[in-house]
Amino acid sequence: MSEETTIAEPVIVPLRHPLRWVASGVVAVLFAMFVHTLFSKIPSGLTVCHRLHGHRVCGQELVWRFGWTEVFHYLLDPLVIQGVEMTLFVTVMAMVIGFVLGLIIAIMRMSSNRLLSSIAWLYTWFFRGTPVYVQLLFWFNIAILYQSFSLGIPFSHAFTMATISSNAIFTVLRAAIIAFGLNEAAYFAEIARGGLLSVDEGQLEAAKAIGMSRLQSLRFIIVPQAMRVIIPPSGNEVISMLKTTSIAVAIGLPELLYQTENIAARTYQIVPMLIVASLWYLAVTTVLSIGQFYVERHFAKGALRTVPPTPVQRLRADLAGSFIGRRGSGR
Amino acid sequence: MTDLMVEIASLRKSYGANEVLKSVDLNVARGEVTCLIGPSGSGKSTLLRCINQLEKHDAGLLRVDGELIGYHLRNGKLYERSERELCDERAAIGMVFQRFNLFPHLTVLDNVTIGQVRVKGVGVPQAQAKARELLARVGLHAKESHYPSQLSGGQQQRVAIARALAMEPKLMLFDEPTSALDPELVGEVLDVMKDLARSGMTMVVVTHEMGFAREVADSVYFLDGGVIEESGDPREVLVRPASQRLQDFLSKVL
Asked: Are B102 and A206 within 8 A, CB to CB?
């Protein structure tokens, strides 16, 4: 009998990865050092005294290096909350303008009419080619270019039905929403165009063949499929917009950063107020990312044979698996 | 009303300088099955796609059920029809594609109901009832809640046939319906088509399935280089081809 036949089933010895362990150790130590500084205290420069067993004890006052006391004092300050609301409002309005106008520009760009597609190209070229900060200042100062807007016959002053001054239209808030919205439209147009192009040409033909109009084909067949490609970069755009609204500080829009900067100027709590603003931006971004996961999941129907499980479903499956004792068997 | 479902006279179509159809004449009688055969690039698919105006022809007259397709004829001039009119014309002509082109984001049932609901304005319960009836007819009543990607090619093509039939077309066009299928799945699609032919549906089929053409077709047209080289009864044309070109073609495909 040979040796092979006497051993029933050879044991598998997994390959070791020593370098991976070293790297993990280094990263873990560095991370621990950083976390330690986050929650360490430093002398404030003041001496404080208190009584202990009848003796007066004096020493350096210790405060959080990152000013957590101040951070949590101002985190839910009514002015900060107002700022968050303003940031969210401007973000939502600008994204709505960006999505609607962007989709129109994308469709214009794909039109067989040369004038329409050229205008769409020109729009994207201009609004993508200049900094959004410059555009924001332009809209804020638009009254210098156009004192008023009138409704009447083009190229003629003979007949006007209504006139409204620029300053009445372009308040700080509206200037910000228009600037961010029009800028976003240029980016979203390209995202939407990519999405529409990603849908197989046969889909439009099949929709036409059952008698759908161009608009019906877009709405019921093409756009729902394009959404799968459009959503991930759009999620990026929403998150990017949320943060971009902070540059409206420059025109005095009372959004989140404006409010925290104001409090910092009043209280000299510069770093804690920056942390307050950052925590809010992170919180909103987190909520948006979770939302994106579920929207993506919705539009994945049909494209994937099985829709990816939600974190809740995954947890439930893991728990159920461990109770039955078959955990990991199928992986 | 004539007994002709499709009348095509002197039809021309060019892509730039490339003339794909050079004065094609073709008639399909009501209730008949017509097969278009020919080598790739012969213009047979283009001809089929002109019938429901997925391609616009450049010259000639094309009638379906006595109605001029794509243009109005007034005072000796052809006026292009509006988008709305083209949609109405297309809704009455069913089409089945080589690559199925099912809507992947919709379930099988929704694929068969969406045209009825959105184009014909049928109520959802009624449309679903009709869809279930048609899915049963093509043998897929158990698959209604599946998505197209979960079906085999043959099953997808049968759903595509049901989707076209749901619009209650007076004419069905098939563009190489079995060419993208694995050989063992061809039969199930051809069986559905044979059943449809027996029920009296007028059909124009671009195909390479000579067996199907011989068995089911009432007439066969052989296209080569944008012209109809030969046409007639398939049991005649396919068995004793007159032209050298058809003889060469048949020797390659059979």
From this structure: yes
In terms of DSSP H, where are the helices of B93-152?
A: 108-118, 124-137
**If interface means Cβ-Cβ distance under 8 Å, which residues of chain A face chain B?**
200, 202-203, 205-214, 216, 220-221, 224-225, 299, 301-305
Determine the straight-line distance between the first and last CA of chain B, rounded to whole angstroms: 39
Contacts of A202 in chain B (CB under 8 A): 97, 99, 101
Chain A residue numbers with beta carbons less than 8 Å from the beta carbon of B105 are 224-225, 299, 301-303
SS3 (DSSP) at A151: strand
Tokens of B91: 């809704």
Q: Which residue's structure tokens are 């698996």?
A: A321
Residue given tokens 């409704």 in the structure block: A151
The residue type found at A89 is: F
Helix axes B153-165, B124-137, angle to 10 degrees: 130
What's the pLDDT tens digit per position in B13-55? 999 999 999 999 999 999 999 999 999 989 999 999 999 999 9
pLDDT tens digit string along A189-243? 999 999 999 999 999 999 999 999 999 999 999 999 999 899 999 999 999 999 9
Query: Beta-carbon neighbour count of residue B115 at 10 Å?
Result: 27
Residue A23 DSSP one-character state: H
Q: What residue in A sits closest to B115 (Cα-Cα)?
A: A210
Rounded to a whole number of angstroms, the distance from the CA of A223 to the nearest CA of chain B is: 11
User: For the CA atoms of A149, A151, A153, A156, what is the dihedral angle to 10 degrees?
Assistant: -30
- Locate A170 and state its tokens: 């372009």
